[in-house]
Structures are given as C-alpha cells and as structure tokens.
Amino acid sequence: MPIAPLFLALLLRAFAVEADSDARQLVELPPPMSEHMLANMRDHLLAIEQITRSLADGRYEEAAEMAEERLGMTAMRIHGAHHMAPHMPEGMRAIGSAMHRAASRFALAARDAEVSDDLASAFAGLSEVMGQCVACHSAYRVH
C-alpha cells in the first residue's frame, strides 16, 4: 500500500477516535440553526481579531463600536438569540449571555481608554469576553 493513502487512513482514524473521546456536551440543533450558530461564532472570532487590531492602532472608539455591534448586548438581536436560546442547554445560554454582557462592558472600557489611555482595563475587559468563549467551547460542541 502506498504511503500517502496509509497515512491518510491513520490520520482519519485518529480524528475519529478524538471525536469519540470528546467529552464536551453535544448540542444538537436543526441543520440551519447549527449553520447559523457556527457562522455567528466565526464572526465573533473575526470581530475579536478586528477589535484587537483597532486597539493596537489606537482606534478605541472603533473597537468599542465593533464590540457592541457584533458581540455585545446589541448583537443578541442581530444574531437571532431569541430563536436560538430555546435549543441550547441552560449552561450554554448562561455563558452566551455572560459573553454578550462582558462585550458591552468591554465597549465601555475601550471608550474610556480613548480619554484615560487606560489600556489595561480595556484588555482586561476583552479577556473577560474571550474567557466566556473558551468556557463555552470547552463545555459544548455543535455539529
């Protein structure tokens, strides 16, 4: 047997074993909702990257607006949270709500940094947002 197909077969088997041993709670959603949730999470990740770039460039108001509109409490309506929430376990809903609240608090800290130049508070707020992402991804999985 040629090496490449053998390697591919072993790699696929390793991924299958890893998926079988994934202890995170599987959240089963109807396919359109699952796709919507995964798209939202990819947008959250993109928003965090853009927010950190804005902070690095000293554009604090831009970082604040992005955080509120794409991650904060304002974003819950845009992301269809009221349609998604009934399909999520209570713990997942709680973490998601905590992430949105943390993002709104971060937006305020980023706006304050514009005046106070207190980047430590802004980064602490952004870390709180990311901590909620890590908590959710550590406890739950969607496919």
From TrEMBL:
Domain of life according to the entry: Bacteria
Lipoprotein listed as a keyword: no
Signal peptide region: 1-19
Name used for this protein in its record: Cytochrome c
Keyword Lipid metabolism: no
GO molecular function: electron transfer activity; heme binding; iron ion binding
Keyword entries, A-Z: Signal
